[in-house]
Amino acid sequence: MVDENMLITNSHELEQLYGAVAKPSLTKVTDHIHPAYRPFIEASTFVALATSGPDGLDVSPRGDPAGFIHIEDVKTLLLPDRRGNNRIDSLRNILNDNRVALLFLIPGIGETLRISGTAEIRKDPALLDKFAINNQSPKTVLRISVESVFFQCSRAIIRSKLWDPATQIERKALPSTGSILSMISQSEIDGLAYDEALPERLKNTLY
User: Fold this and answer.
1) What range(s) does the Pyridoxamine 5'-phosphate oxidase N-terminal domain occupy (predicted)?
2) Residues 201, 181: one domain?
3) Is 142 inside any structural domain?
4) Same domain, 68 and 113
């Protein structure tokens, strides 16, 4: 049974349990893109975008070649919204609550970079063309006003062995996308046909 006396309900209890914040953990926070942090953004090929909306929270993956998030200036980032499934959950959330958070990952690097701020959705033709790949421009670009930037130490990456090739799992060890859709739709979606068509569909719709 759950012991309700073990429930933490306030920040004082948390602070008593975890102790004081180390000085470096406070010193590393900036309100802009410091020159020390710029290389992390430029080298990142993957970022998780967190948003909040009327239906709850959302975290969405974003990935492209290194440098795909442009640094407009020390307080501004530009993030293209590439072709996807058209759910546009993140964009809908931003229309209701423009606060966003970003977690940058760099292959082979233990430290991650965390940025929070606010975002607006832009469709300026010149801006979209700036992010064209294979002659395909994104439909929109997020212009993010930076409020907080700091690096996260490598403990989580080390513990998870995220970049260790020996820990990689073969795709066939988990349910395929088609089988997931088939199970959830109670076979309304033909999972086998979906899986057979997926590689070519991904190739043709990447951008």
Assistant:
1) 34-153
2) yes
3) yes
4) yes
Instruction: Tell me how many domains the chain contains.
Output: 2
Nearest-angstrom CA–CA distance, 156 and 151: 12
Q: Are residues 200 and 145 in the same domain?
A: no
How distant is the alpha carbon of residue 19 from its chain centre? 30
Provide the domain limits for residue 183.
169-205
Report which secondary-structure segment, H or E, holds 113: strand 112-122
List pLDDT tens digits, range 48-105: 999 999 999 999 999 999 999 999 999 999 999 999 999 999 999 999 999 999 999 9
Strand order in the sheet with 46-53: 56-63, 46-53, 99-105, 112-122, 140-152, 76-81, 70-73
70-73 and 140-152 beta bridge pairing = unpaired
Claim to verify: residue 140 and residue 90 sit in the same structural domain:
yes
Instruction: Find, among 91, 118, 97, the residue nearest to 54 by Cα.
Output: 97
In sequence order, what are the residues at sequence separation of 6 or more whose Cβ sits closer than 8 angstroms to the Cβ of residue 198? 177, 178
CA angle 4, 8, 13 (to 5 degrees): 135
Mean pLDDT score, 164-168: 96
User: How many Å from the N-terminal Cα to the C-terminal Cα in the chain?
Assistant: 51
